[in-house]
Write a structure and sequence with these properties.
Elements (H helix, E strand, L loop, with lengths): L1 H10 L2 H8 L6 H11 L2 E3 L13 E3 L2 E3 L3 E3 L13 H11 L3 E3 L7 H5 L5 E5 L5 H14 L3 E5 L9 H6 L28 H9 L6 H10 L4 E6 L2 H9 L4 E4 L13 H12 L4 E5 L5 H9 L4 E4 L1 H32 L5 H4 L3 E3 L1
Parallel strand pairs: 4-11, 5-6, 6-7, 7-8, 8-9, 9-10, 10-11
Antiparallel strand pairs: 1-12, 2-3
Helix pairs in contact: 1-13, 4-13, 10-11, 12-13
Amino acid sequence: MTDLEHAAAAVLPPDVRDFVAGGSGDELTLAANRAAFDRTFLVPRVLRDVSRCATDATLLGRPAALPLAVAPVAYHRLVNEDGELATARAAKAAGVPFAVSTLSSVPVEEITAVGGAVWFQLYWLRDGARTLELARRAEDAGCEALMLTVDVPWMGRRLRDIRNRFTLPAEVRAANLDAGGTAHIRPSSGASAVAAHTSEAFSPALTWAMVDRLREHTRLPLVLKGVLAREDALRAAESGVDALVVSNHGGRQLDGAVPSLDALAELAPALGGRCELLLDGGVRSGTDILRALALGAAGVLVGRPVIWGLAVAGEAGVRRVFELLTAELRSALGLAGCADVTEARSLRTVR
């Protein structure tokens, strides 16, 4: 993936590259996400039949070819003119779900029309009724799950975007929202227009009461994305949430927040299987996926590598990302003595 990241950096405008790659503050959590994987070692098993290693999994009660979903990333058309449509086609071909962002640059209806498994990531807007309308719209479009992001009362201070005074080009918009062009206005002083727009649109008053309200409003599986604390995870399980995404938003919200993988290692035994767990943040290889499985995840979300592939070669580039992760995961499974994903969850780790 490092080669792909470098190739993407070579073709993207510097401000777009920074928007995708950057984190908040001094980017300590961004770096710590990767460091957490690097200090997690697997204890492989031997004398097992690994002549065929299966990578298929079940995510939110549905089959997937990999224990993986595409993470919700905004504005795919920043890096490729086909945007989320190219990503959706590649995800469908790979047999993995695509979590579409509220801030997608293609309407959700066009994405579900591609025919793959689509989850819809939802931000709670200042207008609660409008949020529920958006959730219903996603359900009517054929999305298979709702993923409520709970760690963005406002956007973290992403210093690269502030220094670049980052804004979206006129042809890239939040297609699921009536943005009114707000995200395209370049601020007069050093700031990110995207951060200003999301601060206007998102509610900083999201509480458990709204989670309950959303749960009552939809028939779809409900996932909370952005949970790191044991107390919050336990409360989510008690409230009937179907799954949690253990995530620090890719190091883009609170700088200094615990690495996602470290949080997973604490939450999985505390929950004891009461709630499905997905891991988001820092996944770059099949071995990373195996580490997450061994620590209790049902699967992982992959974001930045997908955008790098999309930037380099469109749909073909995203397909290549999935091909690499499949090959790496199959190899890692076999070398760890695991014939399938279920066996991977019994591996021990040394951290």
